[in-house]
Amino acid sequence: MALSKTEILPGEKVSFTFKGTSYLLHATGKKERESPSSDWFIVSDYKLYLTANKNGQKITQLLVDEKYFDDDMINILFVGDLDGDTVPDFLIDTSNHYNAIIPTLFLSTSAPKGQLLQAVASHTSVGC
Questions:
Q1: Distance of CA 61 to the CA centre of its chain
Q2: What is the CA radius of gyration of the chain?
Q3: Is 93:20 a contact under the CB 8 Å cutoff?
Q4: Which of the residues 53, 65, 90, 119 has an alpha carbon 20 to 30 A from that of 81?
Q5: Alpha-carbon distance 65 to 74, whole Å?
Q6: Containing H/E element for 33?
Q7: For 109-113, which contacts have Cβ atoms below 8 Å and span 24 or more sequence positions?
Q8: What three-state secondary structure class fits 81?
Q9: Tens of pLDDT along 50-70?
């Protein structure tokens, strides 16, 4: 499924509906313009959360927590039901460095009680 945006900066929210359930991705942290005329931001103390109702209970779960970024940003690569339980699973690039990619798979069927997702696998690739 396509989200309205795949990079969610601090203070931003992305809501979507999947199989009749509403979800909200939102981020907190510090966001400063690189310079007064720049479109680029320096982001620190970043946290990405997912909120939804599960079994009648509203749950907000922390998915990603990064202190700083080196010319990179968390990027949501995929949202869809990989494990067949009608709840969205996520593939998120959790890298904080421009020369690396860390696709991390979050599955809903592996989530502990009181959570929506569980990170079950990741792979780090770096450039030269």
A1: 10
A2: 15
A3: no
A4: 65
A5: 10
A6: strand 21-33
A7: 109/83, 109/85
A8: coil
A9: 999 998 999 999 999 999 999
Token pair of 29 as six digits? 């942290």
How many residues in the chain? Answer: 128
User: Of 31, 66, 69, nearest to 48 (Cα)?
Assistant: 66
| Bigger pLDDT: 40 vs 44 | 44
- Whole-structure pTM value: 0.93
CA distance 87 to 53: 11
**pLDDT tens digits for 73-102?**
999 999 999 999 999 999 999 999 999 999
Where exactly are the structural domains of the chain?
Answer: 13-126
| CA distance linking residue 100 with residue 90, whole number of Å | 19
Q: Determine the straight-line distance between the first and last CA of the chain, rounded to whole angstroms.
A: 33
Pair of tokens at residue 83: 């494990």
Strands (E), 34-88: 41-54, 57-68, 75-80
